[in-house]
User: Fold these one by one.
Assistant:
Number 1:
Amino acid sequence: MNAQKAIDPATTSARDSAPSSTWHSQMPDDKEMLRAAVELTRDIAAARPGIYWTDMLASTAVGYGALAGAILVGNPLIAVLLGLLSALALYRSLLFIHELTHIHKDALPGFRFTWNLLVGVPMLIPSFMYEGVHTQHHARTRYGTPEDPEYLPLALMKPWSLPVFALTAILLPPALLLRSAVLVPLGALIPPLRTLVWGRASALAINPQYRRRKPEGEFARMVFWQELGCSTWALSVLAASIAWGWRPLGIALCVVSLTAFLNQVRTLVAHLWENDGEAMTVTAQYLDSVNVPPPALISWIWAPVGLRYHALHHLLPSMPYHSLAEAHRRLSAHLGEASTYRKASYPGLSPLLARLARSTMTAR
């Protein structure tokens, strides 16, 4: 069934006719859906180590292998194709950072350390940049408000904000290199700079108002070692580039820039971005989020590691990514085509981007 047809006209009309500042807060929770989401998925709620380890390690090996090929091969066309493959594989590897924020710390022994060693530190995006940040996005009273680090009312902003939002991601890799190679070491000597870098440049956040609080306890110790690893790696890469040439670093930055761009485009369609700052019910948060389930053909490529079920993830934040497809199947079958649950399903990337673009053109 076409997911667009699953939207209830009465609900849609009520939402569209209500003032944009009120429809979210006025929407009551669908208790049947919330109860079913918990009760029907208890038996698939445990992370399966074999899937996590195999997927992460294979994606990482393909990503770095293709990157090495892109750097070493002489044929420009083959180099470009290998670069594209590397970007897609590393994109998948990087998105395991999302899983790290939700799985229990004892669920996958050694996974966080290995991911940081192989992916987070070499890509200069260690897990601390998301841990302790992303959970605020899921907080019941923070989602969609100015205190949400991962929310902007993009649908209510000007049309030019969308391409700017997407294209600025290309600058992320050189910015991360500057952060780890220059700003963090200098911050160790200059406390005000350290405070600034931590508060403004140490979180994967899109809300410019967000300021990160100083880390404490065990988390602060983890941050120290991850920062040390990133700075050591960044300075080593720069030293090697000075000694042996800048071509490998340039190609690597291009590949990671493409990865960052892909993630930013995915972010554009992770939500409808229609909330203007008010607190929302769980159901309203769900309907402001997006599922792109089958029969969408390539959503697993541009929204990997379970992120094509982003709305479902907001119902069940701790559900492991490999169980989301089965959870979606069960809930769809149990609740039916006319249910609230089906209203968060969309047919693909292009329709969602078009919807968001139209929203910006009519925003006041």
Number 2:
Amino acid sequence: MSRIQCERCLRPQAHCLCPLIPSLDSRTRVLVLQHPSEVRHALNTAKLAVLGLRNSELRVGEAFEDLAALIEVPGYRSALLFPGDQAQPLAAYAVDRDPRPWLLVVPDGTWRKASKLLHMNPLLAALPRVTLAQVLPSRYRLRKAPADGALSTLEAVVQALNVLEAPQCFDALLKPFEALIEGQIEAMGRETYERNHQR
């Protein structure tokens, strides 16, 4: 027998995160392209990011036929939020010479799956890349990061918005994420968590 799920946050109703999810306005538009393997993931942080941001959209797939329309939005300049040799560090709008806000395209999946999204969508791979000049440590305490500076999708979005739209702060988006992680730790038991996940 399956547990009843909240249709909005996709969590079991007894663990619904909706009361913790804010509804924030942002000048920046966020487009998350989610690999299908992430949709039912217990820690679907991309979903939390999009639920908490009014100016955002989540699309699920591997190849996106309508990608041109999604990334060419009048009044915005589009970029891929993804590290790479050519990636330019994001700077606050207050010091930016270009008056247009960013449309940040964020691939969601493991590094391998995110790279596959780029490979299957040449328009995506052709976008200019932006990255975080300084990466704050991840709060994702349940799995070891594949590399230093690796963040969950939600954390990457929050840190990018905090840089771009300073002094506005988007940390409220992290509240359901923190609750989700605490719930997972409680479910596995503190002793098990400390034995397997503490460094």
Number 3:
Amino acid sequence: MKSQIHLIRHGITEGNQRRLYYGAADIPLAEEGVQRLKELVKEGIYPQAEEGDFYTSGLRRTEQTLALIYGEREHETIPQLREMEFGDFEMKSYEDLKEVPEYVEWISDKSGNAASPGGESIAGFSTRISEGLRILRGKHQLKELSVRHSGKEAVSVVVCHGGTIASIMEECFPGRREHFFKWIPDPGHGYTLNLEKSDIVTYEIF
């Protein structure tokens, strides 16, 4: 059986506009983000998902993005798919932090094990996203079972975050990109994961 999981990054926020570190901060979409999503909907870039199951990370920017793209939909939240938490660095920019010793130490770490004060390490974030992906795939498999004899394709739509999507793609397609950050889609864009017999085999960009 073939099926699809669509991963969509939320629209533009103040955090994107001001180039801030933000993950746990529950900020809404900026007006620019709302307008850009409406434009992308008109361009028809989003996969059809009339019979799909819908998920968000539970943060406002993902809830708003889902509603703008697909309308008000019943959906579940998967908190494990939230963005990386930056602790004391939340809603601050490089310029705000560049002379803070804890920040300098954090960005200089190459092991992935250093955490921002009150926040997550890269390793801890990756572990959490792996758990979120496991939960998502389990729910998607239930969808596959529910449509097995209907002739329809199982579809799941997940609205989450840039770092979350990059971590998922890096796990599913190791070695396909040179660097984690190259997997991060633009706001409002994302990837379609194509599955065969519940295994993720290829992807498409939208």
Number 4:
Amino acid sequence: MNNKISITYLILIIAPWFFGCRGTVKEENENASASSVSLHVGNDKYIMIDTKESVLTWKGSNLNGLNTQTGYVYISKGELMVENGQLMGGTVEIDMNTIEDKNHGSDNNLVNHLKDPDFFEVKKFPFATIVITKVASINDENKNVTGNLTIKGITHPVTFPAKMEVKDGIVRANGKLVIDRTLWDVRYKSAKFYDNLANQTMSDSIEFHINIVAKK
């Protein structure tokens, strides 16, 4: 995957593929790597997301499922709040300019179209964010994550299942988020807004696979 990011057609994010509730930073190691920094706020620990190892993968398709597109988008920055080995919150910022198609990279007609006003209007809205507001434990590994997803300046709550592991100072989390793109004003070839599209109708559902690595 070459460390690439899963928000279709982002449609997406994600992040942008991951998470919220950030407190006031009291201590920061300014000499630490930008991709792996540990911050402490009282009894809470903020662990910076490693942007080189984390990836958000998107998947979109026609309504009939015959034409499927998959690609990546990169996390520009983010942090997870972990307390006593449990995910408590966090934030993820996704750089929409980094959208890529799995088979053809970042310089192709599909990606250029995804950046247009038809889809994500990246020039006006270069970043998407996910802010985690609640984490409910199903068991030690499986969680239900609730947060606010912002795309194109529009924010809606989302809830998705995720798995999380904390081991040797490394947090690994992955989840699957499916959104209705039209809620974020991504209307291109949606049957909700256009008639007589026939086989060209695109599914309103966008699937994101979020893989996050954060380190002390």
